[in-house]
Amino acid sequence: MTLQATVSMSWVDAVLAEAERQGVGRGRLLAQAGIAPEELQQERWPIDHITRLWHAAVACTQDAGFGLAAGSRAGPDNFNVVGELLRASATLREAIAAVQKYQRLISDGGRFQMVAGARASWLIYHPRQGTLAFSPHQVEAVLATVLAFVRNALGQRPGAGVRPLQVQFSQPRVGPLAGYREVFACPLAFEQAFNGLLLDNAVLDAPLPHADPHRARAHQREAAAHLAGLSQGGALAQELRAWMAAALASRVPTRAEAAAALGVSERTLARRLRAQGISFAELLDGVRRDAALQAVGQTTRPLADIGQALGFAEPAVFWRAFKRWSGSTPAAWRAAQRADRQP
User: Fold this and answer.
1) Which residue has the higher pLDDT, 59 or 233?
2) Which domains does the chain have, with CATH numbers?
3) Phi and psi of 22, rounded to 5°?
4) CA–CA gap between residue 152 and residue 38 (Å, rounded)
5) Which among 34, 72, 33, 38 is positioned nearest to 53, based on CA atoms?
6) Of 24, 49, 175, 324, which residue is most buried, by most CB within 10 angstroms?
7) Please, which residues bridge with residue 120 across strands?
């Protein structure tokens, strides 16, 4: 089993903000997704978390164009330091190269590929989902966000300015065609070989109005430092949590299995965890907590069955753990979550 991709909270905030604009508070949205509010304090989420959030947002808002709306309103703030680097880049082509290099700071749940042509170039997005299938709205949001950034970088107002020559999706259309036309204003195709935007080379290579080589170099150093820190620090905890969550569907994961997933010895994993002040047992406890809160709040499975599936041999042991995690009994938590999901 491989480690799962993760996503920064700045991208999570884009989903929460669009849901709030449509009248769905974050408490209701998180409850629908089966995600504990405490998870908002994390620096990054497993990709499956935000996939559940996307599904919940569409279910709560009943908006077939939710991904397009969220992506169109995304701005540099949703790209953290990468957003600042993009704005200071000399050209859009240089900015896209920076995204490819530092994309993990936003999310490693996908990658961008540039395929250059004589007059135009394809910017292709390859999703990398976790154990859950991506919501099609996630992919639509990514392409809408790319176009929103292009227009922002060129100093154009949202919804106007440069148009792609073509936009295509590998998935079927999920919303009204008028919504796609309003966002992209170009020929569209669905159920194609890949997801991408075709951009005129003249647009890609034109100087950007906010280009600043000094700021670009400074932001590049900052991004490189963040990327190094992500690789060496918090990423280990986030990736282990994501792997544990996937493994927990069939068994309680062990430290030896985690080491094998990372491709290191159990001794090396233990040393890395100690160096970062991380406890394997505490990480696993947190993952079991999240799984328990979701299963109890979002399903009708018997509570004893949930406890047994999470590795608790006796119902009483599960009850005590659940009370420690949530401050309430499983039955009380289930009742409260059902009440929160009411409009």
Assistant:
1) 59
2) 6-226 (3.90.1520), 233-340 (1.10.10.60)
3) -95, 15
4) 33
5) 33
6) 49
7) 200
